[in-house]
Amino acid sequence: MKKISPINASLIFAAAAALLFAAVMSLPFRFAPRSTTLNAAMFLCLAGYAALLCRLSGKGLRVLSAPFLILSAVLAVAGSLAGFVIPAAAGLCWIRSGICFPGPLVRRIFAEALTVAAGLALVGGLHPAGLTGWTLGLWMFFLIQALYFVIIDTAPGPRGESADRDPRQTVRGRVQALLREQKLERAFEELQLSAHRSSDT
Q: pTM value?
């Protein structure tokens, strides 16, 4: 089965996150402030995206325990939307480039600064109001996150037969090849000596 690329997965998840956000926001949470409801919906979307990144990178969900423990505490005490969105963006950077898909440091910082900052700036520039505005803003935010995987190469390198071998086995194979070559050289030398001797007689 062909593995889906992180770019395509992020694009697909953008639509799924928008639907999830719309579904959560449509629930009658009248007992909670609107900012708390928005933060909870964003927390669920971030949890889904983090689980997807773990799946794509081949890591277990246990690696997410530390980031989401901190984000859960922030969610519980966040009194406003901005009080949770900024820590959530930092948590996304931690999960994506610090745990699941690390790359070269400079390129990683550039990719995170571009995608997260551009996504937040876009949502802030839209000034979303109402369910439709927030859903559209979240959808566009996750669309921009696909750019991270354009900047950071997540494709596995070529794995030939020599790359799959243990380095000690590779060295051992080279030594054995050299010994075989030496044996062949000696055999040829002996054949030439025997040929000279036969011709002399």
A: 0.71
Tokens of 45: 């979307």
Residue 118 three-state SS: helix
Per-state percent for the chain, helix, strand, coil, to nearest 5: 80, 0, 20
Two structure tokens written together for 29: 């949470």
Contact 37, 81 (CB under 8 A): no
Summarize pLDDT for 122-151 with one digit per residue, the tens. Answer: 888 877 777 788 888 889 999 999 999 999
Sign of CA dihedral 172, 175, 179, 185: positive
Is residue 159 exposed (0-12), middle (13-18) or buried (19+ Cβ within 10 Å)?
Answer: exposed
User: Where do the domains of the chain lie?
Assistant: 6-151, 161-200
